[in-house]
Amino acid sequence: MQLGVVGLGRMGGNIARRLMRGGHACVVYDRDARSVSDVVGDGATAARDLADLVAKLSRPRAVWVMLPAGKPTDDTTMALGDLLAEGDVVIDGGNTFYRDDIRRAKALAPKKIDYLDCGTSGGVWGLERGYCLMVGGAEAAFERLEPIFRSLAPGLGAIARTRDADARAEQGYIHAGPVGAGHFVKMVHNGIEYGLMQAYAEGFDILRGKGAERLPEDERFDLDLADVAEVWRRGSVVSSWLLDLTSQALADDAALSKFTGSVDDSGEGRWTIEAAIEEAVPADVLAIALFRSRQEHTFGERLLSAMRFGFGGHVEEAARGG
To answer: pTM, whole model, 2 decimals?
Structure first.
């Protein structure tokens, strides 16, 4: 299939590359000319701007938008709405607030342009590992573009069960429901992610603290945290990809000295807590994780930063120079 990709940052460029590896054709655009040339070097077709991108796509057209949530995605989606036509599809693969999806879909509906919201998890590793995809929108539009989602997903040799939906989930992608459902599922996914990372961070803080001089000498343990993380990866019930990243970060630098512990709030955790309040669902762990993520300078918070950098390339504000 052919797909336009707008936004070639940490994930957008690799999404285009993985699609091309799967036999799809990509027309790409980004304001950064170097990002465009890098992906063109891997086989994509460059576009000068959004109008040129749309002109180079065959109808019915599909454009994947991979930009920061909020105004950048909003402006791009509305601009595409002026350029596309009936039967075309806009896919938002970023971390958009699900109510913004519903609003945008309504704005595009009079032109009969479909809108799919695609919660995308996989970070900077998605090119090789594949992406976990949670898609909301009209089922007919989803099914037409399903070859794209199948190519992006891990596709771990799923064994089909009784429903197509079961087989999709086993391969790493689902049609979650109507517009907004995909990003809602991804939003809660990220809230859980923050809770898991906070639990690891606090646990390793306790392990590290066991060597403190204030403790009785015969109760101090000089624990090798990299070894602890590594052994927990081997058959432990707390093993996970986050623990894999923790183990690697500690092996590279036991003190995590290049991290300050300042974890940027990208929105999804806050939105998850707001949804919990609206639904009257207790979310104690997720709420604590959200607020703890804003504190700095403990070893645990440095570990949080290391995990976020490991899976998504998230850079701390201090490292950005901001």
So the answer is: 0.85
Question: Could you confirm whether 202 is annotated as catalytic?
Answer: no
193 tagged catalytic = yes
CA distance 227 to 254: 10
Query: Which is catalytic among the residues 56, 170, 186, 202?
Result: 186
Distance CA 243, CA 196 (A): 10
The torsion of the CA quartet 155, 100, 184, 152, rounded to 10 degrees, works out to 10
**Span 245-261, pLDDT tens digits:** 899 999 999 888 888 76
Short-list 97, 76, 83, CA closest to 31: 76
Round to whole Å and give the CA distance between 311 and 296: 20
Q: Which of 106, 143, 146, 193 is catalytic?
A: 193
Instruction: Report yes or no: 111 and 81 within 8 Å, Cβ to Cβ.
Output: yes
Rounded distance between C-alpha atoms, residue 147 and residue 141, angstroms = 12
Closest by CA to 207, choosing from 192, 183, 188, 229, is 229
Output the six-digit token pair for 48. Answer: 């000068």
- The owner of tokens 């460029």 is 13
pLDDT digits (tens, 9 = 90+) for 30-75: 999 999 999 999 999 999 999 999 999 999 999 999 999 999 999 9
Which range of 173-187, 239-253, 291-305 scores highest in mean pLDDT? It is: 173-187
Q: Give the integer Cα–Cα distance in Å for 42 and 30.
A: 15
First to last CA, the chain: 40
